[in-house]
Amino acid sequence: MNQTVANTFNESVHISVPLLVRLNQFVSGLSLRSTRILARQTGDYLSPFKGRGMEFDESRLYQPGDDTRNIDWRVTARTGKTHTKLFREEREQPVFVWVDLRAPMFFATKGRYKSVIAAHLASLLAWSAIRQGDRIGGVIFSEHIHHELKPHRGKSGVLRLINQLVHHPAWQTGKLPGLDEDAGARALMRLRRVARPGSMIFLLSDFRNLDETAISQIVRLGRHNEIVMIFIYDQLESTLPSAGQYRVSDGNEEVLLDTFDKQRVAKYKQRFLQHKQHLQQLAHRNRLHFITCSTEDAPLVVLQAGLGA
Length: 309
Description:
The protein is α/β, with parallel strands linked by helices. The chain folds into 2 domains: 3-34 and 93-306, Rossmann fold (3-Layer(aba) Sandwich); 39-89, no CATH class. It is 38% helix and 23% strand. The chain has 10 helices and 12 strands. The strands form 3 sheets. A 6-stranded mixed beta sheet has the order 7-6-5-8-9-12, with helices on both faces. A 4-stranded antiparallel beta sheet has the order 1-2-4-3. Strands 10-11 form a two-stranded antiparallel ribbon. A hairpin with a 4-residue loop joins β10 (245-249) and β11 (254-258). α6 runs parallel beside α7. The two termini are 39 Å apart. Residues 1-6 and 35-53 have low confidence and may be disordered.
């Protein structure tokens, strides 16, 4: 294996501080400003959702599409016409990344590991956040280890996040621990503790094994924050390869994958589609943003398209 091929392979399965720092030069055209912003006047932002860090601006007549949770009942009772409140958002918005480093994220058949894609996305979002004057924080978690990062300003905030990503024990080689189905829910609970209402939150995961407790945490977070769910997947997880027999290994064990069985192949594909549709419906019901990213996609291009940059 020559040096160029070795470096390409290494960057597909591992991350490094210099690599994630270099992503800073690519975010000049990427904006994280809320897509729910109603108007911009004299440098301020008006937002239809309320939370700490939101200052009441005015009441106006209710319009179709307004959030009913922000109805101004006092003005409505006094005038006899339904009014809704507008809040002036703080110029500085806390941005959080919730990064999944559980065992299933260390997988790819093409492109980069899902965990590597998540780290690239988190770093791009972090650099973009401080570029527009926001603070960056997050939760980085695996089955057994969680790191909580309260939001910090400037380059030091991003470097702190990058160091936690790169040096997380989940990257160490060896036999992977069994999947802890409660890890995602616990990490979301921790996120709720550090993310104050009015924050912008990016959930970077394949969203495997999220039970009703985890789903309820996402819903509760979405009531007072801007949530962007980025679903990371590998092509093999969505569709099995053409008919044949394939040996698959996780580095410790090896199994034979038989794709001659058309019924099995169809059921496999249907399970993935159901998982994806469940996430899409969750986002739609709760007014969350939903973006997909495969292990072959360029993270910057995905963010530019998904965030309307």
